[in-house]
Design goal:
alpha/beta, 15 strands, binds iron/sulfur cluster, 21 helices, Rossmann fold, binds cobalamin, 556 residues
Length: 556
């Protein structure tokens, strides 16, 4: 007899740079920024005699009355609170709960008591056994997967997913990263030896996403460009694929490391294929901290120049920014601010150094007695950390982050970086992709909502109005080739609660942070010690002129 499986991607425990709570908060239907690949992939591994239903809780509520034999839950550390409560409710109702995914794999001891079946690691090769056991009723308490050969990857079941409410489709073309950043759990989870999906399989997945209406796709790789020859082979195939599409072309976004900037052919091929946006873990301009973190690939290079080179070739950049390394002094907040303002990068995903459970950093700090008692889960909370910093107090760290975040996301500061991006994107070379763009696809509802949000930003206040209208005006100028600006502006309105405040928002935008306070105009955060001459804590309206050393005044 057929069995049924209900697979859930739970809501995150808090908003993040990557989530899309802003849709719901502004009265649009809920949405997610990226379609969840984990549940769509596990669904594809289930044999035909399993009836599978998917629930991405970012889009639809969990149906606790579902008539399913098994409930499967995925999740990252940021979803652990919600994973636990969903599992508890289904178990209370007598369902058999299976938990897998990154968090279950990296923190199995935390997860084990909360499920009936724990699945650790990648499952493609153990899926036949797992599902056969579930079918026969003789399942084990725990399954451990291996580092699989991606040739056996199934095409995800996007036919079961609510595609209309996901901004981007998702494809993982490789797993693993050869670098060894001390704080990174990627290499613990999927390894340092990068494994690659065959090109024809990637194209089949692309066909499928295209069929479901996606015209923006996130390549969910840890480091897309690090194996140069393989990346170029795939890019050539993607470019050809994209040129063949008759109902609008696809834009891609992915994660790369900064070393890609020194390979001009790589930049040209990325941009020509339609890669319009990348995330790069820049982390810090403090070289001593980069060395401490074993972030070798960021050393001995001019980071500002290399970021700008990528932009000049037509690819906009988001940067990861970390403060609180052992070698960071309290002047780091100001140094990071100056660094950010010297770039044409609107979005920085900023956070304190955290020590995820399975990392070398966690082991080193545990040995030194420098982890706070709450454990690694605190690491997933925005503006918090499980690390006891070396050269500042935790209070100084949180105050500093708060100042830094308020400063780089002040509308005038954001505007300055955005205008620079619009002005320089593609200034060295206009990508083939941009030159070829002939036909537009039919707008998707989630995209139309994004455009409406863009229009509303100007009503938040005079600074937002200025930032929004100058940026939009600049995009409209013939010189501008900025395809990324609009989505950057919309993403800037996603924010999180301020450190230590519990309820106060960091920026002036209404988002779902659970407080309802976001519509009030908050004040700029408490200042870190190294900046005594900064604007008074309640001086939000005058902040642009008050940010020491900034050139924002010139924009007004
Ligand atoms: C793409 C990606 C993202 C995308 C997600 C896109 C999407 N919607 O799918 C974005 C950019 C949104 C993202 C965000 C974050 N991410 Co991320 N992300 C990744 C990345 C690079 C790939 C994940 C992926 O798509 N894998 C493909 C799917 C098919 O595989 P999988 O999820 O690994 O699952 C496999 C198995 O675990 C198993 N499985 C999974 N679930 C289940 C469930 C059941 C029931 C079963 C049986 C099996 C099973 O089957 C799959 C196939 O083998 C990984 C690193 C990596 N290489 O894994 C990090 C990673 C998962 N992310 C991580 C983190 C920390 C985050 C953030 C918290 C970062 C932050 N500080 O904000 C946020 C969280 C956002 C949120 N909503 O809560 C950590 C998780 C660590 C942990 N202990 O949980 C990872 C491992 C690495 C890292 N440090 O970035 N991420
Ligand atoms: S480059 Fe990125 S994915 Fe690779 S080890 Fe460093 S942080 Fe992890």
């Amino acid at each position: 007899m057929a069995k049924s499986l209900y697979l859930i991607n739970p809501l995150a425990d808090f908003p993040s740079y990557f989530s899309a709570e802003v849709f719901g908060a502004w009265g649009f239907a809920p949405a997610t920024s990226m379609a969840d690949l984990a549940i769509a992939t596990v669904a594809a591994l289930a044999p035909g005699d399993f009836e599978v239903r998917l629930c991405d809780e970012n889009i639809t509520p969990v149906d606790f009355d579902v008539a399913a034999d098994f409930v499967g839950i995925t999740g990252k550390v940021s979803q652990w609170g919600r994973m636990k409560s969903i599992a508890a409710e289904f178990r209370r109702r007598g369902k058999t709960v299976i938990i897998g995914g990154p968090y279950a794999s990296l923190s199995p001891d935390m997860v084990r008591p909360h499920c009936d079946v724990l699945v650790r690691g990648e499952v493609e090769d153990i899926a036949p056994q797992l599902f056969a056991d579930l079918m026969s009723g003789g399942w084990q308490r725990e399954y451990i997967g291996t580092k699989v050969d991606l040739r056996i990857s199934p095409v995800p079941r996007w036919d079961l997913y609510p595609n209309d409410r996901a901004v981007m489709g998702t494809i993982q073309t490789s797993r693993g990263c050869p670098f060894e950043c001390e704080f990174c759990d990627v290499i613990e989870y999927v390894g340092r030896k990068q494994r690659h999906k065959p090109v024809d399989l990637v194209l089949r997945e692309l066909d499928e996403l295209y069929r479901f209406g996606y015209r923006t796709v996130f390549l969910a790789d840890d480091n897309f460009t690090v194996y140069r020859s393989r990346a170029k082979e795939l890019l050539a195939a993607i470019q050809e694929w994209n040129a063949r599409q008759t109902d609008g072309r696809v834009r891609f976004t992915t994660q790369i490391s900064i070393d890609a900037a020194s390979d001009i052919e790589m930049l040209e091929m990325c941009a020509d294929a339609g890669l319009t946006h990348v995330f790069i873990g820049i982390e810090t301009p403090n070289e001593v901290s980069l060395r401490e973190a074993k972030k070798r690939q960021n050393l001995k290079r001019n980071l500002l120049e290399e970021i700008q080179r990528i932009i000049n070739y037509g690819i906009s950049v988001d940067c990861g920014m970390i403060v609180g390394f052992d070698n960071d002094e309290v002047d780091i907040f100001r140094r990071q601010y100056d660094f950010a303002m010297a770039t044409a990068v609107p979005i920085f995903s900023l956070g304190a150094l955290v020590a995820p459970a399975a990392t070398p950093l966690h082991a080193r700090l545990a040995k030194a007695g420098r982890l706070v008692e709450e454990g690694a889960e605190i690491a997933a909370t925005p503006w918090s950390t499980n690390v006891i910093p070396n050269k500042m107090t935790r209070e100084e760290l949180f105050e500093g982050i708060r100042w830094l975040c308020n400063s780089i996301y002040h509308p005038a500061a954001f505007e300055q970086r955005m205008l620079k991006l619009i002005d320089t994107l593609g200034s060295t070379r206009v990508p083939l992709f941009a030159r070829q763009e002939a036909h537009a696809a039919k707008p998707r509802p989630v995209g139309t909502d994004g455009a409406r949000m863009l229009q509303r930003i100007r009503h938040l206040g005079p600074d937002e109005e200025s930032a929004s209208s100058r940026s939009c005006g600049a995009i409209a100028r013939p010189r501008a080739r900025c395809s990324a600006a609009c989505s950057n502006i919309v993403r800037s309105v996603t924010c999180t609660s301020a450190p230590g405040s519990g309820t106060r928002p960091l920026c002036r935008t209404p988002i779902r942070c659970g407080t309802g306070n976001c519509l009030a105009r908050p004040s700029v955060g408490v200042l870190p010690r190294p900046l005594p001459d900064h604007a008074a804590a309640d001086g939000a309206a005058t902040a642009p002129a008050a940010i020491p050393g900034s050139r924002q005044g010139a924009l007004r």
